[in-house]
Specification:
The chain is an alpha+beta fold. The protein has helices spanning 6-22, 61-85, and strands at 39-43, 52-59. A two-stranded antiparallel ribbon has the order 1-2.
Length: 86
């Protein structure tokens, strides 16, 4: 189960997107760039058992590699656009 309300999370993303537009920055939603299997795990916070659950705040080592590749592509593409402006 997601540790937050889907409605609140959707509202949060809309607010951040609005702030980016208002302050002339780019909004990038990269939440789907990491496959579910590459999220970290932690000890369950429920009282039912000692099971592992997905840690929505951390990637596995391989998840960090995937994310860094995604960011590298974004940075390279934006640097090309920046060079055109100079």
């Amino acid at each position: 189960k997601i540790p937050y309300s889907k409605k609140e999370y959707s509202s949060f993303k809309k607010e951040i997107k609005y702030l980016c537009k208002e302050h002339y920055c780019n909004f990038l939603n990269l939440e789907d760039s990491i496959p579910n299997t590459l999220w970290g795990t932690k000890t369950s916070t429920n009282s039912i058992g000692n099971n592992e659950e997905i840690d929505f705040m951390h990637f596995t080592g391989e998840g960090h590699k995937v994310f860094s590749k995604e960011l590298s592509i974004i940075i390279k593409n934006n640097l090309k656009n920046f060079d055109m402006l100079i």
